[in-house]
Amino acid sequence: MKFIKEDSRIYSLGENKKIIAEITFPEIEKGEFCINHTFVDEILRGQGIASKLVELAVEEIEKKNGKVQATCSYAKKWLEKNKKI
């Protein structure tokens, strides 16, 4: 799966250019980023795509020397499980 990275968003498009996976992590304060949205299309669920999205977002935030937090329930659980918060 090909992921497209933007400043505070990572996503993937399906054949029809529809978003099939997405995560957003805006900078809410200087150096603090909040993962606030994770989406995976029904056809991809159960394949670890959401986990990969959170992992990629955390990598991007860490490259910016930022702190990670989350309001997205999936991301919160992932961060706790992987000891990132």
Written overview of the protein:
- There is one protein chain.
- The chain is 28% helix and 34% strand.
- The chain has 2 helices and 7 strands.
- It is of the alpha+beta class and 85 residues long.
- The protein has a single domain (4-81), classed as 3-Layer(aba) Sandwich (Aminopeptidase), CATH 3.40.630.30.
- A hairpin with a 2-residue loop joins strand 1 and strand 2.
- The radius of gyration is 12 Å and the shape is globular.
- It has a 4-stranded antiparallel β-sheet, covered by helices on one side. Strands 4-5-7 form a 3-stranded mixed β-sheet.
CATH class: Alpha Beta
Biggest β-sheet: count, sense, barrel?
4 strands, antiparallel
Number of domains: 1
Put simply, the count of helices is: 2
The proportion of strand residues reads 25-35%
Strand order of the largest sheet: 1-2-3-6
What gap, in angstroms, lies between the N and C termini?
27 Å
Q: Residue share in helices?
A: 25-40%
